[in-house]
Amino acid sequence: MEPTTTKPQNFRGVVVKTAMKDTATVAVSRYVKHPKYKKYQVRTKKFLVHDPEGVAKVGEQVTIVACRPISKMKRFKIASATAAV
After folding, report:
1. What's 15's domain CATH number?
2. What domain count does the chain have?
3. Cα–Cα dist 37/85, whole Å
């Protein structure tokens, strides 16, 4: 049997907070359909992201990828950052 390789989770989101050392808060939005009412809505979840160099600035679009647990709440790190439009 061949070992299966899986890609880590990755999301695109907006940096909403950078007040902590080595950590940024990223809001990831997704567009989902309500199961009963069939109306589309935007659901947002915030992730704590490891940012050791401090490259993230509030309002920037970033791509985050899953990694090993860094702390109790941090399970993602910043892969790339682009300036806000």
Report:
1. 2.40.50.140
2. 1
3. 33
Phi-psi region of 51 (alpha: psi -120 to 50; beta: other; left: phi over 0): beta
Q: For the chain, what is the radius of gyration of the CA atoms?
A: 15
Instruction: Please state whether beta strands 76-82 and 40-50 pair in parallel, antiparallel, or not at all (unpaired).
Output: parallel
Q: What is the pLDDT of residue 85?
A: 62
Residue 32, in any domain of the structure: yes
Enumerate the β-bridge partners of residue 27.
Answer: 14, 46
Domain containing 15: what range?
10-82
- pLDDT tens for 2-37 read 888 888 899 999 999 999 999 999 999 999 999 999
Which of 43, 54, 44 is CA-nearest to residue 78?
A: 54
